[in-house]
Amino acid sequence: MTAAHGTEPRFDAPATGTTRSAAGGAAIRVDDVSLTFRGTRTTTALEHLTLEVAPREVVALIGPNGCGKSTLLRVISGLIAPDDGSVAIDGRPVRGPDEAVGLVFQEPRLLAWRSVEDNVRFPMELAGWPRDRQAARAAELLRLVGLRDFARAKPSTLSGGTAQRVAIARALALEPAALLLDEPFSALDALTRERFNAELLTLWQRTGSTIVLVTHSIPEAVFLADRVVVLSPRPGRVVADIRVDLPRPRRVADLDSAAVGRLAAEIRSHLVDTTDDAIALADARAALEGEDAR
Amino acid sequence: MTTKPGAAARAKVTPVDAPTVTPRATGRSTIGLVAPVVASLAVFLVVWQAIVAIGRYPPFILPAPLTVAQRFLKAWTDGTMWPHFATTLVEVMLGFAIGATLALVVGVVLARSRLAERLLSPYLVAAQATPILALAPLIALWFGTGLPSKLVITTLIVFFPVAVATMVGLRSVDPRLIEMARAFRATNAEVVRRVEVPAALPAILGGMRVGITLAVIGAIIAEWAGGDRGLGVLINVARGSLFDIPLMFATLATLALLGVTLYLVMVLVERRLVGDR
Questions:
Q1: What is the DSSP string of B58-93?
Q2: Distance between CA B237 and CA B231 in Å, rounded?
Q3: Any chain B CB within 8 A of the CB of A77?
Q4: Considering only CB atoms, which chain A residues are within 8 Å of B183?
Q5: What does the alpha-carbon distance between residue B13 and residue A110 come to, in Å, rounded to a whole number?
Q6: Cα separation of A16 and B140, whole Å?
């Protein structure tokens, strides 16, 4: 489908006009947050978790399956209220989904009955923007993610990568000061993923928003982030907070350097306790403790 | 065996130059859609004629297709058919509109609340399981033999498939889409209007497609239970006091055409609303 247009769309297609958010990146503060899901089986997803993200910082959250990374992202975005503790964006406590936050999910989650452009306009409609402002902003966003020619296309005709670009454009619609991404490229093949990561950095430089990204991939975390935060398996806690002092702008080729190898090894060492076996062991121990308590 | 090289070259170029059109829009596939329908109708009529010819049935048992066609045209041109057709059409359209609207509302309520489903579904299922044929005389007794009883019966028969389709359609909306909408600060009403109903629309329209054909059945049953006008009444009169079996067949043909037309209208509406997903 992209062949018809000659070249693959790119995030860093020449852009006119400003896409810089007014706030210039939000400060995020997660303060002593705990969250337990009660159901047929009670799981403590987050326990006394504290995390601070500076304006314009890129933070990667890394950890094993079920460590509460995605839950933490939902708490920050105001979709889930924590049992304890608080979240603040630029000092304002989060009490529900906030206009200052844009969320990108693991799947594109596009509305199948709407065109690409109308999907991007969805948040603006909800925010009650006038139609001409919606149209102008949508055109600007589609240019930014390199999808100008796809405005009228229906989601079912898009490849996974293109659909995810639309989702990113939609997340940027209201010029959020913070962009939260939940394993956004995990469904893409390795090469496309590498390219998308590079393009995400370009996008970050242009929009100037704070980015919190959930990932499973150590190279991805090192490549993108200023800081890599390692979370423990259930309940999620911060195990390590590693600064990535690689110069920017970064290129995919930089991933082969010795400094990257050292950082990756350090991150991996913190992840050793978080293998599936370790989780199973922790679960078993928790279950035993639960029985003792009764 | 001579071929014009120029023509061949043009023919080769055309597909590339031609603007891309969806297959549905091209003339060739319209013929492709219509041809089998015409062919099967022709086979049907031939077999019908053959049965009449071989069995030597008299017209009051099984009239030949041509006899029915002549009676059909006569009934439409001499004004016999029209008042009955108009009466039934009004019953069907109004009954469907009322039934489908009520069903949409109830379907949304059922989808949203498990309690509502537990409270209401026994009655809905019981109403559906009781043959409408058995209820019709009672309804005619209560509401008289005019339009109201026809609308009650038609509404009842349309209600169930549309309500169930709406409930199931809404329940099966991807919860991840709803979470996405909430992340962009959609209110409950906006989630229903902008995400759930559009996402469930194919299922809802599928229920309406069933509902519209049932509405025709409902109207005929209602007319049989009591009434002085309508295609159902005409069938009874043609079979009974007039003993005009070709007219009865002509009325049946009218009913079939009405049902098929309404069904096709629903399909068109559906294609228009959800066609290019």
A1: -TTTS--HHHHHHHHHHHHHTTSHHHHHHHHHHHHH
A2: 10
A3: yes
A4: 77, 79, 97, 103
A5: 37
A6: 71
The whole-number pLDDT of residue A177 equals 92
- How many H helices and E strands in chain B? 12, 0
Interface test with A, best of B184, B196, B272 (most A CBs within 10 A): B184
Segment B12-25 shows an average pLDDT of 41
- Closest-CA distance, B107 to chain A, in angstroms, reads 21
* Token pair in block for residue A187: 């469904």
Contacts B180 to A, Cβ<8 Å? 103, 105, 109
- Considering all CA atoms of chain A, what is the largest pairwise distance in Å, rounded to the nearest integer? 67
294 residues of chain A, pLDDT tens digit each: 444 444 456 555 444 444 444 447 889 999 999 998 887 778 888 889 999 999 999 999 998 877 788 899 999 999 999 999 999 999 899 999 988 899 999 999 999 999 999 999 999 999 999 999 999 999 999 998 889 999 999 999 999 889 999 999 999 999 999 999 999 988 888 888 888 888 888 888 888 899 999 998 888 899 999 999 998 887 888 888 999 888 888 887 777 788 888 888 888 888 876 566 666 666 676 666 666 555
Contacts made by residues A78-84, CB under 8 angstroms, sequence distance 24+: A79/A103, A79/B179, A79/B182, A79/B183, A80/A35, A82/A33, A82/A34, A82/A35, A82/A46, A83/A34, A83/A35, A83/A36, A84/A32, A84/A33, A84/A34, A84/A35
What are the tokens at B1? 């065996």
Report the gap between the CA of A14 and the closest CA in chain B (Å). 28
Q: How many CB pairs under 8 A join A and B?
A: 52
* pTM score, whole prediction: 0.75
Q: Are B213 and B96 in contact (CB under 8 A)?
A: no
Helix B27-55 with B65-77: angle, nearest 10 deg: 110
H-helix or E-strand spanning residue A180 = strand A178-182
> Nearest CA to CA, how far is B81 from chain A (Å)?
43
- Check CB contact of A10 with chain B, cutoff 8 Å: no
Q: Do B201 and A109 touch (CB under 8 A)?
A: no
Q: What's the complex ipTM?
A: 0.83
Contact B176 A109 (CB under 8 A): yes
Q: Which amino acid would we find at residue B194?
A: R
Residue of A nearest to B180 (CA): A109
Contact A137, A124 (CB under 8 A): yes
Cα-based distances in Å from B164 to B130, B168, B259: 17, 6, 22
Whether residue A53 contacts residue A28, with contact meaning beta carbons closer than 8 Å, is answered with yes
User: Mind giving me the DSSP string for A211-250?
Assistant: EEEEES-HHHHHHH-SEEEEEPSSSB-EEEEEE----SS-
Q: Please check the confidence at residue B8 and state whether its pLDDT lies above 90.
A: no
- Rounded-to-integer distance, Cα A118 and Cα A125, Å: 9
SS3 A60: strand
Instruction: Identify the closest residue of chain B to A114 by CA–CA distance.
Output: B277
Cβ(B216)–Cβ(B270) under 8 Å? no
A276 vs B: CB within 8 A: no
Q: Which residue, among A198, A196, A250, has the nearest Cα to A226 in the 3D structure?
A: A250
Give the closest-approach CA distance of A116 to chain B in angstroms: 12
